[in-house]
Amino acid sequence: MNNGQDGWAIRQATHVEATAVAAMVRDSFQDVAARFELTPQNCPSHPSNCVPEWIERSMGKGVIFYVVESDGRLCGSVGMTPSANGACKMISLAVLSDRRRSGLGRALVGRVLEQAASLGLARVEIAIIAKHAELRRWYEKLGFIWDRTETFEALPFEVGFMRLDLHTVQKVRTL
Question: Is residue 163 one of the residues assigned to a domain?
Fold first, then answer.
């Protein structure tokens, strides 16, 4: 468990917390859904529509979810899963809107980087809404680089893929 300066802690989520994690993810992505006009009808797989079954199914497939907790409340989470190509996929980084800009997102990303390095993985990969310029810049400040953009028939936006090659990180640490 990582402890932050402001009384928060990062730990691995358990299966029994799937409902709480799903609610926190769903709440965290509401502003993104509104900004990009994503609805359950035009983008049912967006995290703003997260349900406990998604978290349970992901955990069953080997996704590890880390949560950050403060004052007994889940404030953020991130999922990670090693892939066959020596990479780690980081999914659904979420921080409640009232806790953003407090370092929680950076700490969650740092936890994924530490875990990926400890598993001997070469890089961490993410996917974001390609037009989400502020999020892209935030990830770039953390060392991620833009890889490519793809269009998927089931999504009403282009997906931008970014990666961070762990060998380029001098020392993997909590950011």
Answer: no
